Amino acid sequence: MSRTAAARLLLLVPTTTYRTEDFVDAARRLDVDLVVAAEKPNTMAAALPDHLLTLPFDDPAAAASLMREYARARPIDAVVPVDDATTVVGAAIGQALGLRANKPAAVSATRDKQSMREALARAGVRQPAFAVFSITDDPKVVAAGVSYPCVLKPLVLSASRGVIRADTAATFADAWQRIAAILAEADVQALGQGARKILVEDFVPGVEVALEGMLTDGRLTTLAIFDKPDPLDGPFFEETIYVTPSRLPQETQQAIADCAAQAAGALGLSDGPIHVELRINDAGPWLIELAARSIGGLCSRTLSFGTGMSLEEIILRHALGWPIASLEREHPAAGVMMIPIPRGGVLERVNGIESARAVPGIEEVTISMHLGQRIVPLPEGGAYLGFIFSRAATPAEAEISLRRAHAVLDFTIR
Fold first, then answer.
1. DSSP state, 194?
2. Residues in contact with 243: Cβ distance below 8 Å, sequence separation at least 6, in sequence order
3. Domain range 332-414, its CATH number among 3.30.750.24, 2.30.30.230, 3.20.70.20, 3.30.470.20
4. DSSP 8-class letter at 375
């Protein structure tokens, strides 16, 4: 499609996402006619009925039908889901309108860990051994039949929510009960039958990395590989620091990209961004998670391409079929720290923000939770206090800056 100012782009934005601002800013830079849809009515929707829509994200077929009706008078040139909650409905709308998009079945497989594991197993992708159980099963019986160490996971949650390592039958039973309580929550129950199952998989030792990629007609372009320098060995798996470029050997990075491409193909994904979590040990890369969306939170702000293009602009251009001058990441090393929640309670005060911003190499410190908000740490929670961003000449320097900035922050939690 040729680039014109009349291009109309549909952005699917769940109300819980961090990412609205960055995608809207990218759309403004591209001068598109932006239509934003959420699952709840916007207070400005009455004044902008053609540009602020409400769609049932939990019913992709109904959402697709509504957008077919909308598009009869106002054709849509691209649809972009910005977070996990909108990937499936985005694929359904894309298919209904004949736009560049993944097949809904392929995206659905990324949203259900059992479906994903089974598809990867059929294709021979290296991944942990796994089994799936109902929450009505007796955890003591299940615990007696699994190997240790293992990792228990809900099928339908993300951001490490409910992910717990168990080393013994006793810790397995405790982890099972904690996950069962999470699955009983109303927001999780609304996700369907997957909320009644628990995935148990072998714990894979090794270092963990994340790959950010873009699929075009089934071909994967690696946009960045992030090292995760903090060990993620459990019992919970709270991610903190991401640093790029990776310090792993080039042949290892190529093996990571090959594993990610094989996994995307096994799932049937063809177009758009993917975010892949892998573990690396002497056997090579192991596929841990794959999502049909870009990196979460505000972490994409670490990435810049060509002459300063953001990841969000890359994604929008790709969806529209517009040319992209360069997918090469700008060369300075960059890092982000997702500020962990040290304990649960009410966030009362944050001290040291300006001192953290003054640390050499720090670009920004953003506290995303507001004062007075009740905060919940992992594994029950699935959010972070905020984000610290750094740039430096080397990945090691970017990492050091993040740690120094975090050390001067002080959180009062009641």
1. G
2. 226, 227, 229, 333, 334, 335, 395, 398, 399, 402
3. 3.30.470.20
4. E
**Do 374 and 345 contact (CB within 8 A), yes or no?**
yes
The string of pLDDT tens digits covering residues 292-322 is: 999 998 899 999 998 789 999 999 999 999 9
- What does residue 120 show for φ and ψ, rounded to 5 degrees? -65, -35
Q: Mind listing the pLDDT tens digit for each residue in 11-38? A: 999 988 888 999 999 999 999 999 999 9
Does residue 20 contact residue 34 with C-beta atoms inside 8 Å?
Answer: no
Instruction: Read off the tokens for 33.
Output: 């006619």
- How far lies 128's CA from each of 86, 151, 207, 267, 277, in Å? 27, 10, 15, 17, 13
Name the 3-class secondary structure at 10. Answer: strand
Residue-level length of the chain: 414
Q: How far apart, in whole angstroms, are the C-alpha atoms of residue 226 and residue 260?
A: 14
The DSSP-derived string for 63-129 is HHHHHHHHHHHS--SEEEE-SHHHHHHHHHHHHHHT-S---HHHHHHHT-HHHHHHHHHHHT-----
Residue 202 CA to residue 151 CA, distance in Å, equals 6
Band the pLDDT of 42: cuts 50, 70, 90.
confident
* CA pair distance 141, 134, nearest whole angstrom: 12
The whole-angstrom separation of Cα 221 and Cα 100 is 17
| 374-375 vs 410-413, strand pairing mode | unpaired
Which residues are paired to 33 by β-bridges?
Answer: 8
Select the CATH number that applies to the domain covering 129-202 from these four: 3.40.50.300, 3.30.1490.20, 3.40.1190.10, 3.30.2130.30: 3.30.1490.20
pLDDT digits (tens, 9 = 90+) for 315-358: 999 999 999 988 999 888 999 999 999 999 999 999 999 999 99
Give the integer Cα–Cα distance in Å for 179 and 202.
17
